[in-house]
Amino acid sequence: MDVSFRDRCCERRKGEFGQGPKDGLSHEKRRQQAAEDLLFLIECYADHPKIPSMSTYKDMVRVFEEQCEVVGDRVTIRKHTGNRTMQNPSDPDATYDGHKGSGYQIQLSETCNPQNSVQLITCAIPETAADEDGDALPKVIEHFESMNLNPVELLADTLYGSDDNQQLCESVGINLIAPVRGPTTHCKQTSS
Predict the structure, then answer these.
(1) Is the predicted pLDDT of residue 192 greater than 50, yes or no?
(2) Does the residue 123 lie in any domain?
(3) Interval 91-113: pLDDT, tens
(4) Range of 173's domain?
(5) pTM for the model
(6) Cβ atoms 152, 174 nearer than 8 A
(7) Domains of the chain: total
């Protein structure tokens, strides 16, 4: 086994996880070292009769493949990994969204008629953080139809206001009220 690797793993360093290193290594250098160590472990145990079938080894390979790549004989860290990367090994299905963070989200629909004395949740669909809100409306409509709960009007934010979603709602008799997505146009006033 690589002695420097063993020493890094056995050494207790204050500030290893986010409190500011005192050994002078930058965040980028620490990430690079972690990427190289990850590849070292993957290669070290790849031919072992039992370890590659273990979930922890598979998670390690997944993290490396999502976060790193080997270019020539050098390990590099990907600049853009996408949102469907492992966020937590104890919850490998959790994903990431730059606006919402890591984890999950829920598509929620509720009644909103001021004449109702009580407003009710009519739909709750869990999704990963990386799922696009605008792509969820077909699942919501499908849920409404399966429960015979189609509303007359459906209020939604801008992310749901696509042409496809508008047409889908019209096809089942729902009036989708959502701001339209797209660039703002500016008109110049000309004088004659």
Answers:
(1) no
(2) yes
(3) 888 898 888 888 999 999 999 98
(4) 98-177
(5) 0.66
(6) yes
(7) 2
